[in-house]
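writing this on my phone so excuse typos. first protein, seq and then structure
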Amino acid sequence: MTPHADTRAARGLVYTLLIGLAVGLSLGRIASVERVVEPSVHRADTDTTTPRPAWPSKRPEPWPTFGSNDRARWALARALVEEGTFVVGRRDRTVVVCSGPAVLAATNPFAASCLLAAGYQARISSDRGIIFEEGWQSVDKVLHPARLEYYSTKPPLLSLLVAGEYWLLKNYLGWSLVEQRWEIVRLTLVVFNVLPLIVYLLCLSALAERLASSDWARYYLLAAAGFATLVTPFLISLNNHTVATVAVAVALYAVIRTREGGGLAWPMLAGLAAGFAGVNELPSFALVAALAFWLLLAGHRAGLLVYVLAVLLPVAAYLGTNYLQLERLTPAYAEFGTVWYEYEGSHWRIPEGQTKRGIDFARRNGETWQTYAFHLTLGHHGWFSLTPIMFLGLVGLLLGMFTALARLASGSSISDSPDRVGNVIAPLSGFDRLLLFSLTLLMSLVVFAFYLLKSDNYGGWSNGPRWLMWLTPLWLLGMLPLLDRLAGSRLGRFVALVLLVASILSMSYQLWNPWRHPWIYNWMESRGWISY
């Protein structure tokens, strides 16, 4: 073996150690997964104004699920296997005047009297089904106004995949999501979160081999990926964000391998992964377009064609499952703000003349977009304030982009591509670096703007800006140009380490439940600086 190969083998041992630590931590948390009832999350018995639930009057039944977001997915998976339907609940058809399809009746006395004369009853609720059972309740449901059937607001594709695993466990082991819920939830989280985490960290370590010039920068990146980003707290909960984040890393790695002349299997994998990221995190379709643009500029015509065709497969699956659920191509959450969401008894319904408090209604209660933008970047749910390592990412992306431009301007070929020579992996070319860093900055700008315009609640009760999680691998790789510079400075390494420790602190805060507010939010609330 060459000295270079010996060094790379030694780095592989460190990578293995870091990945093992991250996986062990995740498995331990999954083994003890349980919804914890914290006094601080509930209002006092004498408090009737704070928008938080009252303390339970009796001991809650233990559950390995956390709340509305993941329970809406679990409920759909259970309905698919146990009842063969996408319907997670039903409202009695006598409930008309005061519920879903009777919005007209609610505001029109003549229409109401006609319905009552026709035999309908003016009752408020008569709901039944999985989504209303103890331990399965969720606000993330819509009521079909014509069928009076409840559906999960979550796109059904991920739940369908989970249902596939549950079907195997139920039919071959006799397990039930009611009786063996602990075993099934834990095993599912291992399959859908921990195994992808291993793939994620392996892809990032392989990309760091191509992008970084110092071992310290490579090790820093992998430590940050395993412990210091939003991926870490969400590994114990069924969610779309972690799988989309892993898919982004896989797609990026596959594109780099395509650039290294790896054959058509790599652009196919890139398309499948990018498409899967897109259907789990719709704004990440920006990545789908960016990678296609990358392959086009690099002259990979055959690879581009294979990539596009592969993207269509998860997109077709996404649209197909939407159609199977609602007989239309758009998902249920596209109806936000309509009667589908704002039926009688819905969490999202605000009666006329009333207001609702809580982070779910932040901007609807008067928060300005400027304040919202501050808190989404530097405030209580900030991308930079909660994970300050992202400051390194921002500077590194800019530094990497300008360095790549300078390299190309100095005469390096714009079409040069990396290549493998024996056990040696050549660094990424200036052309590929320029595209990686500039496209990351452009996508990030677009995505931040999208959420500033389209979102209003920071992702609800959440450990951070979870909608932005899929950008994580891109920003981690963006750190490398700066980390290489800092590696040679004791002060630089110290500053980077402080930022890493601060990020791990934020991501380890309330590590038992990712569906809790960040520490900055709780601190600001305790000071009386915010009150949603």
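second protein below, same order as before
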Amino acid sequence: MEKKELNKEQYYLEGVQFARQMISKMFKPFTCEDIKDEFHKTISEPNEPRIWGNIFNKLNNEKRIVFHSYQKCRSAKGHGHPSTVWISKQYSDQQRMNRKSVSKNQIDLFSNGETNNDTNSNN
């Protein structure tokens, strides 16, 4: 399959759109490299690779992604420097709701559904 050639502005706009679509489907941690590698399967790389920093800054400012951790950069160009690992805001919210539901169940198990008022009224 032939790759499309884009100028910097087109590349940025298409990169943002592509990243938004990918992130909305991802329910696991990812790095910029993961998104960029998928994008470059159809679009050739520009002369200015720093555009991806702008793309991820935009996604972070839009609150679409949340910091997760750091890992060693996989590419040889990265020389093993730290690479930020992100998760989608949607995935982060889902994890938070799962934690809340688990903690409610644990509290209900130990309290047997009683409140402090119920135990005080028996005195």
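The longest strand covers residues 65-72. thats all i got for now
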